[in-house]
Design goal:
107 residues; mainly alpha; 82% helix; elongated
């Protein structure tokens, strides 16, 4: 790969960290797709819109801090934190509305 051939070991290490963090983001995105569809079926469009706007603002603010301080790794962490926060909000909404998030004994 061109990226690895022309990169220093420090840059490769940084790329590896970003890849690991963004792999966690993919997990949160999968959970958001599942829970988001469930919330949508419960007529939770307003909630989803409010949370989306809030998390966009959160991600922008985290990026404004993290990118100058930590670079691309900081941006990856900001994205992961925003996605994980969304999962917590979604689960909170489902628990608050007395919906079963999942049943352990059926897994």
């Amino acid at each position: 790969f061109i990226l690895f051939k022309n990169s220093t070991p420090e840059e490769v290490s940084q790329m590896t960290w970003v890849f690991k963090i963004l792999s966690g983001v993919m997990l949160t995105q999968g959970l958001l797709a599942i829970y988001g569809t469930y919330i949508l079926a419960l007529n939770g469009e307003k909630f989803l819109n409010k949370i989306s706007i809030s998390l966009i603002a959160m991600n922008v603010l985290l990026n404004l801090y993290a990118i100058p301080e930590y670079g691309i790794v900081g941006a990856a962490w900001a994205t992961f934190i925003s996605g994980l926060s969304a999962v917590f909000y979604y689960v909170y909404y489902l628990v608050k509305s007395n919906q079963k998030v999942f049943k352990i004994k059926h897994i």
